[in-house]
Amino acid sequence: MSGVTLTQAVKKYGDLEVIHGVDLVVEHGEFCVFVGPSGCGKSTLLRMIAGLEETTGGQISIGARDVTDADPSDRGVAMVFQTYALYPHMTVEENMGFGLKMNGHPKDEITEKVGEASRILKLDEYLKRKPKALSGGQRQRVAIGRAIVRGPEVFLFDEPLSNLDAELRVDMRVEIARLHKDIGATMIYVTHDQVEAMTLADKIVVLRDGYIEQVGSPMALYSDPDNKFVAGFIGSPS
Ligand code: ADP
Ligand code: MG
Q: Which atom of ligand 1 is nearest to the CA of 158?
């Protein structure tokens, strides 16, 4: 069981504190969405969970394990970024399997895992293509595929759909919801799109200036926001 627990998590860049003692429990299998204005600390918090940023104070646990000081590769997490830097000279298949190959996994296993991920993401027909022969949505699927093949306990998404046009964003949103249903893993998803937050989330975390303003289900935040700031983010009339 691999939920994520932050206990008084702090991040400082030099003397500048940008995350101010955040307490948060994301349950196993939960879809948790971080929202808040630009610069409020969404990416920083996600990168701290991933181990891409050092946590300056407090504790981060995944399941029962304290991972505060663990290497990113030892955390059982996989992150999907807004800019899906695929290797242009590699095929879709090679892009998805690259991480496993680097970690010395056998070829059969890589083929099997890539096959499984490509079925989930409907990329079967594109395995031999290079990224430049794919649409934006297909490229983002490959980036998600790279995360899936690693079999993480926790998926971390940092505005994965921001670079896609509106129509594709809707399609991909539906796919991410389906992926969550199929895999059942814990997912933490950063977005500034209210519709994405409302439709994907079991739990929404509203961040402001490096602290949590309110946590709740989409309905709870919509119908009972603590203040105008939260109401503004969740889009309820106030
Ligand atoms: P968000 O993802 O919500 O837009 P970030 O997590 O990127 O916000 O940034 C949170 C705060 O931390 C911002 O004030 C930003 O300027 C600051 N910050 C982010 N990265 C660094 C860094 N490497 N050095 C100094 N300050 C940073
Ligand atoms: Mg960000």
A: 2
* Cα–Cα dist 10/32, whole Å: 20
38 lines ligand 1 (CB under 6 A): yes
Q: Beta-strand (E) ranges in the chain?
A: 4-13, 16-26, 31-35, 57-62, 65-66, 77-80, 154-158, 186-190, 203-208, 211-216
What tens digit of pLDDT does each residue of 164-221 get?
888 888 888 998 999 999 889 999 999 988 899 999 999 999 999 999 999 999 999 9
Q: Which atom of ligand 1 is nearest to the CA of 46?
A: 6
Whether 113 and 97 have beta carbons less than 8 Å apart is answered as yes
Residue 212 φ/ψ region, left for φ over 0, alpha for ψ in the -120 to 50 degree band, beta for the rest: beta
Angstrom distance (rounded) from CA 221 to CA 70:
34
Quote the CA–CA distance of 196 and 189 in Å, as a whole number. 10
Which residue, by CA, sits nearest to atom 14 of ligand 1? 39
* Residue whose CA lies nearest to ligand 1 atom number 16: 39
Whether 189 contacts 205, CB under 8 Å = no
Ligand 1 binding pocket mutation candidate from 11, 12, 18, 211 (most atoms within 8 A of CB) = 18
Q: Is the CB of 13 under 6 A from ligand 1?
A: yes
Each residue's pLDDT tens digit, 98-150: 989 998 999 999 999 999 999 888 899 999 999 999 988 889 899 999 999 99
CA angle (81 as vertex; 77, 83 as ends), nearest 5? 155
User: What is residue 156's three-state secondary structure?
Assistant: strand
